[in-house]
Design brief:
Largest sheet: none
Shape: elongated
Distance between the termini: 71 Å
Structural class: mainly alpha
Number of helices: 6
Order of helices and strands: HHHHHH
Number of strands: 0
Strand content: under 5%
């Protein structure tokens, strides 16, 4: 990710716009985009500063409060799918992606292995002949 423009440049562009220049003229003079000039002048007008907002940082875990419920739900019904869990969470008022639900189980060490019953299907030439029904 690129770095933000310097605070000095932001201040000069925003000040020029607030002192009567158009956003297009200020952008041309300072060699920045028109949208930057408009955004910086708007921020300066609203907050008194055209400084850049903080970049990066840790994102909060959206399911921190629901983690225990998810793990207990998985323990009581082991064959529940991630899509079902996501729709149940939506019913509880928590809208998240499948990846967010998956991360909770990965961090808890829960794995999803294929069931033996899922291995029964395959090409007919590789199946064992069925015994006759008596």
């Amino acid at each position: 990710m690129t770095r933000p423009y310097s605070g000095d440049l932001r201040f000069r562009v925003a000040s020029a716009v607030l002192n009567g220049q158009t956003c297009r003229k200020a952008a041309a003079v300072f060699a920045v985009s028109v949208s930057c000039a408009a955004t910086w002048s708007k921020r300066m007008r609203e907050t008194g500063s055209a400084a850049a907002k903080p970049m990066g940082g840790a994102r909060r875990d959206a399911l921190l409060g629901e983690r225990q419920w998810l793990l207990s739900r998985m323990a009581e019904t082991p064959d529940v799918t991630l899509r079902q869990l996501r729709s149940e969470l939506a019913g509880r008022g928590v809208m998240v992606s499948l990846w967010t639900v998956w991360k909770v189980f990965v961090s808890a060490g829960v794995t999803f292995k294929k069931k033996y019953s899922a291995r029964r299907t395959g090409a007919a030439r590789h199946r064992q002949p069925q015994a006759a029904v008596g």
